[in-house]
From TrEMBL:
It comes from Chlorella variabilis. Pfam families: AAA (PF00004), AAA_lid_3 (PF17862). Keywords: ATP-binding, Coiled coil, Cytoplasm, Nucleotide-binding, Proteasome. GO terms for cellular component: cytoplasm; nucleus; proteasome complex. It comes from the Eukaryota. The keyword Cytoplasm applies. This is 26S proteasome AAA-ATPase subunit RPT6a.
């Protein structure tokens, strides 16, 4: 009889096979989990970057937000920032052409050619007031001046000078003019000057009104305290010239007043062309008809009409803007303006 070999259990080979497969799958699962954790970490890092970029973008899109070199601290919460103007405010002024030329003569000529005033024996103008309804291009024109003049441009809103602590607003006004002298030639642009420059009354409404009046008195003193030959010019803008104090408007402080009315039909057509030139318009768009239907509208409203027309096209997933889009946007923008700004528009009839 032959010698019998070892007996192999029929289930052992199959069991070992599946154990090996299970181990392979467990290793693959661990690798997948490791890759998943790595991808999640990368996703979280990218999400953090996106959040930071969105926050920075929101800050940059806010009005009056600029990026530049910090020149000097101004109190505890404000700084003087040097902005590189290269290409930043090269803008089409549209309806402001005549006003832009007038302001260029008043602001730029004394800074570039002071000898002309000396030869004629006349005083250089110190300041210019831009006034008119909202949205007519006053601040836009000031930005253009910042680009075209080779001097320090200091921008401040009148509301920023209204402080709750006694003496704080007047101190900020003094520091503004100190900085302007240190960095001459310079232009001080004061937007919404009616916040501090309204006419004074005998019956003060409280400590807040008294502080506003003190701030305005300091502004008047500073306007009187520097010579026009110091290469410092003051540029102010307001929607309400009717409430400004006469002491602020007298010659020697504000030498020129430039009105910014709402654009006429030709100017409205030019503004629509400026704001729609980069839009994908359907052939046959009649912008002149749109301009005719927007009597009394401002430059800001005309820009809003172009933006709304594009939004109507986006909602319908179209890649071009039609005449109907413009007509619907006119109805929307003009209705909003009628409901919101009727009281202001009455002042400029």
């Amino acid at each position: 009889m032959g010698v019998e070999g070892p007996v192999v259990q029929p289930g052992h080979g199959l069991r070992d096979y599946y154990r090996g497969k299970i181990q392979e799958l467990e290793i693959a699962i661990r690798d997948k989990h490791h890759n998943l954790h790595r991808i999640e970490a990368q996703r979280n890092e990218l999400n953090s970057r996106v959040r930071l970029l969105r926050e920075e973008l929101q800050l940059l899109q806010e009005p009056g937000s600029y990026v530049g070199e910090v020149i000097k601290l101004m109190g505890k919460s404000k700084v003087l920032v040097k902005v590189n103007p290269e290409g930043k405010y090269v803008v089409d002024l549209g309806e402001c052409g005549a006003e832009a030329q007038m302001e260029a003569r008043v602001i730029e000529l004394p800074l570039k050619h002071p000898e002309l005033f000396d030869a004629l024996g006349i005083a250089q103008p110190k300041g210019v007031l831009l006034y008119g309804p909202p949205g007519t291009g006053k601040t836009l024109l000031a930005r253009a001046v910042a680009h075209h003049t080779d001097c320090t441009f200091i921008r401040v809103s009148g509301g920023e000078l209204v402080q709750k602590y006694i003496g704080e607003g007047s101190r900020m006004v003094r520091e503004l003019f100190v900085m302007a002298r240190e960095h001459a030639p310079s232009i001080i642009f004061m937007d919404e000057v009616d916040s501090i420059g309204s006419a004074r009354t005998d019956n003060s409404g409280g400590s807040g009104d008294s502080e506003v009046q003190r701030t305005m008195l300091e502004l008047l003193n500073q306007l009187d305290g520097f010579e026009a030959t110091n290469k410092i010019k003051v540029l102010m803008a307001t929607n309400r010239i009717d409430i400004l104090d006469p002491a602020l408007l007298r010659p020697g402080r504000i030498d020129r007043k430039i009105e910014f009315p709402n654009p006429d039909e030709t100017s409205r057509f030019d503004i629509l062309k400026i704001h729609s030139r980069k839009m994908n318009l359907q052939r046959g768009i009649d912008l002149k008809k749109i301009a005719e239907g927007m009597t009394g509208s401002s430059g800001a409203e005309l820009k809003a009409v172009c933006t709304e027309a594009g939004m109507f096209a986006l909602r319908e997933r179209r890649v071009h803007v039609t005449q109907e889009d413009f007509e619907m946007s006119v109805s929307k923008v003009m209705k909003k303006d009628t409901d919101k700004n009727m009281s202001i528009k009455k002042l400029w009839k």
